[in-house]
């Protein structure tokens, strides 16, 4: 069943069943048929004035269009579904439709916009008690990162998606996330090999083959023909790159045996994959035939991305055949299509400018929802609202407070990107949670965190804060960005059992003193020689 799209209609009890049935059709390779039926359901929902039914139908239309390679047709439906779920105050449906919308934006080469939408969807999904919705939103964010060539950040998101659906009956989701994880690992292999780290590249490729084969097995088990075709084509490409043309051919033969209607995206993918494989094998005549079919199919559609990809591959075949004039002519067509593709991106981005104000409002709403549940959506830590409540409960008792601020965090964002900055904050949250036996950690905002130490004396709290500082300094963040290092400055104060109204002021003062003394240290009193550790 689709996460977040089931619709309960007491007046028409069969409607929810019909909508779930169309979703199942899409999960079993009948997306074209499902799309036709869900359009009929949409008309029924509109005639009945059923907003939840309309939102559910529009969500599915967006997804089926993505599966079939009709991103332009699906994006308006996905956005309308997201907005309608928001008006209905259903964050689960909003997160699910928003994730589909994000993926469609990425398909249309609007990667930055897609990443922003996916991040909003993840924030909404974090506050919904539905692991399937969160897994799907995390997957959409991972897809945006893959297209943005930030593959080192993709693995943790997809592994979390897989963990969320592990042991459930949502095998289609498991196949999808494993397929995408394998794709990102191949990209990591290529990056490592380009830098001369051949052994690392081979390790990544081996992991990719394991995950992709797992995706194939799971897709076959649940009958998800769309996921199966995608994984089989990807597997053929992976084995071809390793020189295993025999295995690659067997994967494509299995692709041909999968019954059901084949969407545009799947068909073009298969044709140019086979063309590339045949080119590697020296069977250039056959390769030419398949690449010409791919170009013909792509040019009959309005999908400029397909046209660019297929023209480039056909040009490569003619070059291998020694048909340099034809190759040059195709390359010129490829260049024209590429320019047209860039123009389409600009046009789409201009259209989205009108939506940005609305998107900002959605993010404000997501933040408001976050405040209601008391959890920071990025790190998963309790937020400022939760801190204020916990702090108030400790008033009059003996406890300590520490304020921790990450040093030079703006430079991390500026040098490595906000994507890496977000990943750093998530890593900090993991470290703080792991050291949480004697303290409670909260994210106050930005790069600032609060630590509460109920019942601890000042020296004991300062010792725990020092352990936090040391763990942050020792953290290996090179998987996020080369040579990335992190330190923190921490100010600690004690309530001493008395009034705690000035505690924040004292902790803040000591934090700023720690920074003034050179950063990467803990300050727990106002004496001139109070420095726990210096870098």
TrEMBL record:
Its EC number is 2.7.7.65. It holds the Pfam family GGDEF. PROSITE patterns: GGDEF (PS50887). Residues 397-527 form the GGDEF domain. SUPFAM superfamilies: Nucleotide cyclase, TPR-like. NCBIfam families: GGDEF. This is diguanylate cyclase. It comes from Devosia oryziradicis.
